[in-house]
Amino acid sequence: MRTWALKHVVVDVPDLARKLHTQNTALLGGIAVFLSFSLVSIIYAWFTPLLLGKSVGELELVAIIFAGLLLMVGGYLDDRYHSPPHLQIIWPILASLVVMLAGIKVNVVTNPLAGGLLELGKITGLALTFLWLLGMMYTTKLLDGLDGLASGIGAIGGLIIFCLTQFTPFYEPPVGLLAIILAGACLGFLVWNWHPAKVFLGEGGSLYIGFILGVLAIVSGAKIATTLLVMGVPILDVVWVILRRLFWEKKSLTTADRKHLHYRLLDVGLSHRQAVVVLYLITVSFGLASLFLRTQGKLIALGALLAVMVFLGAWVVWRYRVKQKRPQF
């Protein structure tokens, strides 16, 4: 995909305002992740009894692959022709609708106070599923600002979901297999995407990783709280950016800037790789914690994650201001 993208000039051109790379870098790497995940999943479904089951049937697998294909088509069009935001969102919407039509949706949620499960109405379940999938896709899309960040977080998320599905209370081998396939695809891509990156995920790839993680959270039994802990830092970062742009800066949500947490870590003096590793460590820490916590414990962990995010945000702002006040020689 890198060779093809360079040959056909589907590249990301650096700019001084926001992008960190110094030369034209191939896009479309997400197609490699999509093809790896899809082909390995098809091989397991076709030649072994390990993948298809109650949680993931033939219809669900076909829908997941077809929805991913839609994201790849939309991503290619955006990477090649730079589609405006109102056209970019069409493809994530279509991908979400495809898996929902195949029956992948949130039917129950755990009652965080009294325990047990809460049955959701059909409309409520569909609405929650739609918002969840869009939220996950745009979280990884906005996360894809540093080399190796989105693909590494995707690999960590896949590994955590795999571990969760191996525990007896949540035993779901087919979902675990899909999760470990995703982790492998992301790790294979990370070899090429580690700083300095030789190829980027592109629009489709950055959306695709969030999409698959969102789907796995649903088909594993609505393990949304676990996925929230794994993706907590980028999700809270996105929420903060949305609130800041809407209420403080009065800017459009489609406006790009360098105020995401991963850029702030660079501004206070961390190297590119150090910033990525810091975010990896936070993700791994809360992801592993989610494996040993029940519902109420996960709520406490989410609160702790919010506190970590607030502390980290305050620290980088303080460090940035101190750095700006230092005399320059």
Name the strands of the widest sheet in spatial order: 1-2
Supply the number of structural domains: 1
Fraction of residues in β-strands: under 5%
* Residue share in helix: 55-70%
Count of helical segments?
14
Structural class: mainly alpha
Mean pLDDT: 84
How would you sum up the global shape?
globular
What gyration radius follows from the Cα positions, in whole Å? Answer: 20 Å
Q: Profile the largest sheet.
A: 2 strands, antiparallel
H/E element string?
HEEHHHHEEHHHHHHHHH
Q: Enumerate the spans where pLDDT stays under 50 for 5 or more consecutive residues.
A: none
The count of strands amounts to 4
Could you give the distance between the termini? Answer: 44 Å
Describe the structure in brief:
With 329 residues, the protein is mainly α. It has 14 helices and 4 strands. A hairpin with a 6-residue loop joins strand 3 (108-110) and strand 4 (117-119).
Protein model, in words:
It contains 14 helices and 4 strands. The protein is mainly alpha-helical and 329 residues long. Helix 3 (58-81) runs antiparallel to helix 9 (202-219), helix 7 runs antiparallel to helix 8 and helix 7 runs parallel beside helix 9. The longest helix is centred in the last third of the chain and has 31 residues, at 295-325.
Could you name the key traits of this structure?
329 residues, mainly alpha, two-stranded antiparallel ribbon, 14 helices, 4 strands
List the helices and strands and how they pair.
Layout: H1 2-7, E1 11-12, E2 25-26, H2 29-47, H3 58-81, H4 85-88, H5 90-101, E3 108-110, E4 117-119, H6 122-143, H7 149-166, H8 173-193, H9 202-219, H10 224-230, H11 232-248, H12 261-267, H13 272-290, H14 295-325
Antiparallel strand pairs: 1-2, 3-4
